[in-house]
Amino acid sequence: MEQFIQQLINGLAVGGIYALVALGYTMVYGVLKLINFAHGDLFTIGAYLGLTLLVSSNLAGLLTPVGAAIAVFIMVSLFVALIGWILERAAYRPLRNANRLSAVVSALGASIFFENAIMLIYGARVYVYPEFMRPDFSIPLLGINVPFMRLLIIAASVILMVCLWLFIQRTRMGASIRAVAIDQAASRLMGINVDRVISLVFLIGPGLGGAAGLMVGIYYGQIDFTMGWTYGLKAFTAAILGGIGNIPGAMLGGFLLGVTEALAAGYIAMAWKDAVAFLVLIIILIIRPTGILGERTADKL
């Protein structure tokens, strides 16, 4: 039982990271019907930017580990959100009325550009996060000792997702995002600035992805310039698992994928965790091709 609880908590921590990245994929798909293949690389930028801020700003001597994490968390999210906004203006908006293949090629080109830019700036070696960001103490929970930073990552992921959900469901701008996701032409007729809504989506999604990149650096302690491909693929899988275009589905898919991987690693073998996770995806898509929650095609505003 203790092993199950430990693996469950591990899975929730990793699943929260997957869910945050998956939200970026599903929000962009919701408003543009486009898969932003560069999203995983924005996640990587967040991880590297977080490392740069932690090492160069001497936060270790100024703040506690939690305080430093919160400060860097905010700065990374804002900076990566800005990069996402620039990406939309430079790579996607000019092709808004072009055929879908042109936008896909542009997304792939942006992904290659970001990955190689990171490699040229930082180099190809693996970087290690500062030790002070991984405090060596645990909190007793359900009969086991859980590392504090693991609980902090779970809490931060849940808080961000709840805030996003409330923003989408309870605010006028959130209603605009839902309207644009349903029908752009009708939204324009209703006076909604579609370009502004799409720009906002490219601020929110990359911001969450950048925060997730920082969480990975804190959680695992090391990063590399190719990590965006791995986590991007897992997050995209989570979005499909929950129902691409559906925000609660992306959240559910991320947590489900993370828990499945953790349980497979704990009870079968570490080498089989990816195979088991994708097997679960295949089974669910055979039973429900639109994902667990499915893609919403209509909504009440």
Principal-axes shape call: globular
Low-confidence stretches: 296-301
* Order of helix and strand elements from N to C terminus: HHHHHEEEHHHHEHHH
Structural class by helix and strand composition: mainly alpha
Strand coverage percent: under 5%
Query: How would you name the oligomeric state of the polypeptide chains in this document?
Result: single chain
> Can you list the strand order of the major beta sheet?
1-4
Distance between the termini: 45 Å
Give the biggest beta sheet: 2 strands, antiparallel
Number of helices: 12
Quick synopsis:
This protein is mainly α and 301 residues long. It is built from 12 helices and 4 strands; from the N terminus they run H-H-H-H-H-E-E-E-H-H-H-H-E-H-H-H.
Characterization of this structure:
The chain is mainly α. The chain has twelve helices and four strands, in the order αααααβββααααβααα. A two-stranded antiparallel sheet has the order 1-4. Residues 296-301 have low confidence and may be disordered.
